[in-house]
Request: fold
Amino acid sequence: MDTTAKRSASVPFDPLYDPMTARKLGPGSDYAPTYWIGTAGTPPADDGPVTADMDVDVAVIGSGYTGLSTAIHLAKMHGIKATVLEANGVAYGCSTRNGGQAQISSGRLKRSEWIKRWGLDSARALHDEVVEAFDLFRGLIRDHAIDCDPQDGGHYYIAHKASAMPSLESETRLLNETFGYGARMLDREELHRTVVRDAEAHGAMWEPDGVSIHAAKLAFGYLRVARELGATVHPDSPVQGWELKDGVHHLRTPGGIVRARRVAVATAAYAPRNLHPRLKDRLMPIMSNSIVTRVLTPEELEAVGIQKRSPLTDTRTLRHYYRLLPDNRLQIGSRAAITGRDAANPVHLEALREGMARKFPALRGIDLDYSWWGWVDVSHDMMPRITGLPDLPGAFYALGYGGNGVMYSAMAGRRMAQLVAGEAIRDLPIFNNELPHEGWRTPFRRLGQWGLYKLYHFRDERK
Ligand SMILES: Cc1cc2nc3c(=O)[nH]c(=O)nc-3n(C[C@H](O)[C@H](O)[C@H](O)COP(=O)(O)OP(=O)(O)OC[C@H]3O[C@@H](n4cnc5c(N)ncnc54)[C@H](O)[C@@H]3O)c2cc1C
Reply:
């Protein structure tokens, strides 16, 4: 049975799209050829493209997890029926391309780094926020019967070399003693016996919260819930111009102008740089690639020895994230090209295959059923922001989870809904200031990224 999520796309998918150089995104593109789209089944109905000018109360730009969660919580908590505008098919961006790993995090930084940056009180408050966020995420799936194959069991953060163990041990102590969170260490023998036979692993930190989900089924579930609650969701309606006139935001789409009193931006790394000058270069889009093998044979399953299907990541800065899917295929992802133009260069696929083979020698050379990549919204200080644009009244954004947005985007949407509705939210460093800007360094960022990748690779692979 063909379970591909089909849509009537008028434009083939462009695998080389690059938000740093593109002038526009959409309309009409097909989805990326991901495992998730290949196995999601028929997506729920949407409201079709914008076809005429319209006046709305709240417009949400972007229909990934963040935009849809914003619409869900605007309706649920504030009685506001938002209008969601999406450049291509619903959840065209990261939300149908990720690794499906829900982790107890909101950005790329660890708890010890939170303390260093903001002090203990703020770090504790941020920890409470992500714990609450995980409850919200689980609750959304449970209460709305979102059938996204959740596999609970915690997150295993796996030391890919012996010298990575002490810092995992100290993070585990910190989580327990300072945050009262029950993480624990496993040595290599226990990890191999009870979790995964990862050949390069030296042990792991286990965090009790970690759920693997089907990325596209989660997004399509959010779409169904948002529309059931009264939101309208318009695919193939990219915002291609944005002006504020007499306190009203005029959002130009190919089918008509959407005039909105308030705007919530949820475009992650996918918006071209010209969406609005106030948002330009607040993010550094980083490409990540992902592969899914054919179904493993019983012998391969025995060799891989994965007994927990919840999220696994390793301690490389250029980390691998991997898991065994419900149908016994292995999925693994890591860093990819720096530019869209270089995305299809076979060296990146080969590097990922090699990463998989070092962990699982039995899978060297295995056939792949799926291979794709996508842009991750990394902020310049590695943490997201959910906040307003003070000089653009009525405009807000939730951006910058840096590869950790599957879980936290649910809460980010709720927080953005509160801001849009004029409700005060917690005083946290990810809410009370804006995403940092790179200023004059912008043209050199990719050069810097190239240098950093070389450095990180050297450090990651050094014993
Ligand atoms: C390969 C890969 C693997 C990842 N793995 C994980 C993981 O395992 N765990 C984890 O927590 N996170 C992971 N992430 C990150 C995670 O997917 C994101 O944090 C999350 O999906 C963000 O959701 P979002 O709604 O903010 O953004 P998106 O899902 O990217 O949605 C943004 C939407 O905005 C639309 N858009 C952009 N510009 C416009 C415009 N001008 N007009 C209208 N619409 C517009 C885009 O088309 C897109 O659909 C991964 C990301 C990638 C790319």
Observations:
- The chain has eleven helices and 19 strands.
